[in-house]
Design brief:
alpha/beta; globular; 6-stranded mixed β-sheet; 8 helices
């Protein structure tokens, strides 16, 4: 049975609603979330409500931890830090408690998969997995066939063959019995691969597919402007970077 993996919603309600509708239209019942419910965008409470309602696994990301003040925004850029402050100020106590319940990482025996926001090697360090070398190192730090990550906002499927070769897939791939996979589903709320459409992943018994979904970006931008969030964050949604 197919399932979906989403991440990096970043308080973008309209993008999340569009993705959840697309998943529902495909009659996919199981959804897993791999971090960053909040930050950047204007609607953290409503996004958390939807994620709680629809997702079987809820993973925390670095922006989630920053809003909870588990980590400092010292190494965030100034716009991201301002958005963290805004999200913290508008979130209810109930939704803060919800966020506290998100896991740092979680495995699923049913899916033979590990779910983590940044990397399986050092999930609490919030490192990025960008290169083939990064992939080689991180494949050594989980035992499951599949590992789902977010964090970079850039969708990609990394396949490790039986010989250890790393293959890169940008759209889809079949699942081979002799391979293992690290899958970055991209970002629902703030893509950064020069494609402004929301991104998520569908997995079934035989394949992995990166899916893009159009949503009304202008609605989110107007809400961000009303919230007086940094213009840089508003503008970048139009360009996907």
């Amino acid at each position: 049975m197919a399932y979906a993996v989403i991440s990096d919603v970043h308080s973008n309600l309209h993008a999340l609603e569009a993705v959840l509708k697309d998943i529902g239209d495909r009659r996919i019942d199981e959804i897993y979330f791999v971090g960053d419910a909040v930050g950047y965008g204007p609607q953290p409470n409503l996004c958390i409500d939807l994620l709680k309602k629809d997702c079987g696994i809820l993973i925390a990301g670095n922006h989630d931890w920053a809003v909870l003040e588990y980590i400092s925004t010292e190494f965030f850029n100034v716009h991201a830090a301002d958005a963290v402050t805004y999200n913290r100020e508008v979130m209810t106590d109930e939704h803060m408690r919800d966020l506290e319940g998100f896991n740092l990482l979680k495995s699923s025996e049913k899916r033979n998969a590990l779910f983590v926001h940044a990397t399986p090697r050092d999930p609490e360090n919030w490192d990025y997995l960008f290169s083939v070398k990064d992939a080689e190192i991180n494949f050594e730090h989980f035992e499951q066939k599949l590992c789902f990550i977010g964090h970079s906002h850039t969708p990609v499927i990394l396949e490790q063959s039986q010989t250890g070769e790393i293959l890169i897939h940008r759209a889809s791939t079949e699942i081979k019995d002799t391979s293992r996979y690290i899958i970055n589903d991209g970002s629902v709320g703030q893509p950064r691969d020069s494609d402004p459409r929301a991104s998520y992943v569908i997995v079934n018994d035989s394949s992995i597919e990166i899916v893009r979904v159009q949503y009304d970006i202008s609605k989110t931008q107007k809400e961000m402007e009303a919230a007086k969030l940094p213009f840089r964050l508003v503008e970048r949604l139009s360009y996907g970077y």
